[in-house]
Amino acid sequence: MRPYSFCLSGLLVSVSLVFSACTTPAEPPTGRTVDTSEPVARTLYRKSFADLPGWDKDRIVEVWPAFVHSCQVLKKRDEWRQTCLMAEKVNIDDDGQIRTFLETALEPWQVVSNGGNDTGMTTGYYEPLLFGSRKKTAQYQIPLYGVPDDLVIVDLAASYPALKGLRLRGRLDGRRLVPYPSRGEIRKGGRLAGKEIVWVNDPVDAFFLQVQGSGRVRIAETGETIRVAYAEQNGHPYRSIGRYLVDRGALKLEEASAQGIKKWLSENPGRFDEVLDANPSYVFFREEKLENPETGPKGALGVPLTGGRSVAVDPQHIPLGIPLFIDTTEPNSDIPLQRAVMAQDTGGAIKGVLRLDYFWGFGREAGERAGKMKQPVRIWLLLPKNEKEKSPAF
Fold first, then answer.
1. Which of 2, 226, 289, 332 has the highest Cβ tally under 10 A?
2. What pLDDT score does 40 carry?
3. Closest to 171 (Cα-Cα) out of 190, 191, 157, 144
4. CATH code linked to domain 13-239+279-390
């Protein structure tokens, strides 16, 4: 689950007067700036599987575990129930049978913006590994915090049904709900003492863990590896520190990858706090036992992500949980990356009709690829036959 959140704008004046900080989404945190009067900003065009570039070369068997995970949620929706029930009879190891099933049960719909554009952008993310300790030491100085006791979360839908899925986050000051402290205020204030889950050895890795939303920590005392998963967020908007550095001339746009940002920070330690505090958003974690190292973290759909086969989407435009086919390229490359994926996650920076975040999986190699990925992408929704016309969900 990606942790970002963005401020509401143009919704209800009364809400903005009550609370001047940002509203952030409930589970899942989509990060979308919502305007309930906004018309659908994309058009779908019916296509055939023969129209999908590289469909016949994709190892479809690799997407099937992710498809099955999605069906745990999709089968509760009327438009997907029958498809997911039929999927239970498919041989999970037979690429040909899976391909035949998908081509029989689904049909592709190309996503085009109402401006006529069929090409967007995909970035990448991954699950990192950090090194930590259960106690603060000379080596392990950087805390990862659990959810603060004074963080107040207000479900807006109770009073404003049109705001379903959005929440206010803040703290109580007497009887008033006020914004929760920002990243810089949390760093300086020491208000979260006692809420540390673990202490890690690298402040840059800790920052990028919040960007990724979840990760693993190897504990020095025991050698065990735990997962720290997104639990909550302070309600402030996510701001890109890469954009901050570019706007101030510290980096060129093409240098503002995760690798480029980390390099700049290591060379400019005196500006470390300034740059990180430019992103006021702060993520709180929960510890999870890592029972199966092969299983990815849970995304916004509530099912495990699959490296190379899960993507984050803007659910305002692409329904969460459904299969997609994407036509993009490998990071910093013209090598085609054309495959079926599942829309299983969201992220505050992932907004717009043709915007994806591609999950590369766990570890250093996944991180290298994710950090360099900023590629053009075309998208097709794979929808149950005849359901697109019947269901408003599409």
1. 2
2. 59
3. 191
4. 2.40.40.10
